[in-house]
Amino acid sequence: MIKTVEIRSLEGLLPLLSEQNYIATIDRNRSLYLYRGMPDSAYGLVSSLKRNCKQYAQSLEPSILKNFTKYAAIEDPSIERSVWRQMILGQHHGLPTRLLDWSHSPLIALNFAVTENNLARMDTRDCIVWRIDMTEIHSMLPKQYQEKQKENRTVVFAVDVLNELAPTLEQYDNDMGSDSMVVIEPPSIDPRIVNQYSFFSVIPSGMENIEHFLELHTSNTVKYVIKKELRWRVRDMLDQLNISERIVYPGLDGLSAWLARHYYVK
Fold first, then answer.
1. Of 101, 143, 176, 225, which one has the fewest beta carbons inside 10 Å?
2. pTM for this model (two decimals)
3. What stretches of the chain show up as alpha helix (H) in DSSP?
4. In the chain, what percentage of residues exceed pLDDT 70?
């Protein structure tokens, strides 16, 4: 089931920003949620591969990765050893892949939700933050994946562990079918991945509709809809909290985007 929560005030953000559970065994508070922010509440959960290649996504994916690796291996020869490393590096540089971006930080997700390339559109449409539960998602995995999780004493999968279980796309798709998927934590190949607290869900080719899967098989999925009248207020608050383009995109590009928005005249 997917629960929808509308946020119309800053106070309404508090549940989103404080979703941690107390764990008695360590006497600490922890969250196992992941968040994805998008600037339009009408946007669906669709991978860039599906959006780009539509009904031919599965047949074109191997060619996309093969050709990317052929040229990208000049910079990083290690990607030739793992289709998942190829995919992560490609996703990082804008290649259409089956990966869906998430962040462990609700503030980072909010940043992507309330920021527009065209700032004139900021108050014309509601934006959205999706929340999923990693433990709930992984409770549906095949037995061998869950056993590997226990063996590694971790909630998410490292790329190398996933490569052990499914070294090929065909193996992964056969294992997952249409009603399970893996969440991976990417290696820190770039400061952007670190600053964005990035995670990826690996969408199997058999999962035609991600939202339908979440509606049928999960109980803790939430859609936070931030109303358009609140977007500038949240955007200004995030700037004061040092969550902006210059943090999520380290370097001169991010700095320039932040300054352009900072001095934007409404």
1. 143
2. 0.95
3. 14-17, 48-53, 57-72, 83-92, 106-114, 134-138, 143-152, 159-165, 169-176, 191-195, 210-217, 231-240, 245-248, 252-262
4. 100
